[in-house]
Amino acid sequence: SDSPDHHIQSLVYYLLQDLQHTKQSAETYARKTFLPNQYETFIDGLWNLDRLYPEKALDNLTSPSLIPTFPEEILYTLCQLSLPSKDSTLPLAYYHTVNPAISSPKVQDAFFSILCRASITEAFYWSRTHDEFLHRRLFEKLIAFVHSDATGQIRSGRAIEMMCLPLGNEEKGWFEDFVTDGKGKTLPGIKDTIIMWKMIVGDKKGLKEMGPALNGKKVDGMTWGTLVDGLT
Known about the structure:
By secondary structure, the chain is mostly helical. Helices cover 64% and strands 0% of the residues. The chain has helices spanning 5-16, 26-32, 37-50, 54-61, 71-82, 89-98, 105-118, 120-127, 132-146, 152-163, 169-180, 190-201, 204-208, 224-231.
């Protein structure tokens, strides 16, 4: 093979991790071949990640001795592993420690979902760090995420947090386009969000045009119509 010796040695070291019952353990092999410590640490991280030990993997893969290698793939794997538990700690810890550049749309979407789950506000500001096309796509994904939960209380809490964000004029336009003419118009609870939005921006004419949507379920004895009447 034309690969450098330490690359081949790293592969052998990885394979030996599964053969600890042999006389020549992985650690012994690493010592005998003078495998650089940073390679050993990185391979330990990959092995732990492959064996679904993400906490141990994170300790290895965020070591200050390492130059980030395959950061997008590692971040994506951590995002996927966090889905069942809905715990965003590990992918966020890896991202904030390594600070990888994310160019893959698949990884962008996976990590943005993690951000949304952790904090609507943090996800919003992260979307702003990208070019206009990606910014808009992520912003629309944020709106969709806010309305994705079937539990009304959780959904309403996220919607209120989203409505309190300091949207710029461009983002306001994207919001209105998405929820009135785009894919967002059929999202669960979107009518409530549109009413909140129109109240915030003072769109009295738009509120009156909402019609029957203002006279839905009462909360604490009031409907949206009651609140709108109070504004007008």
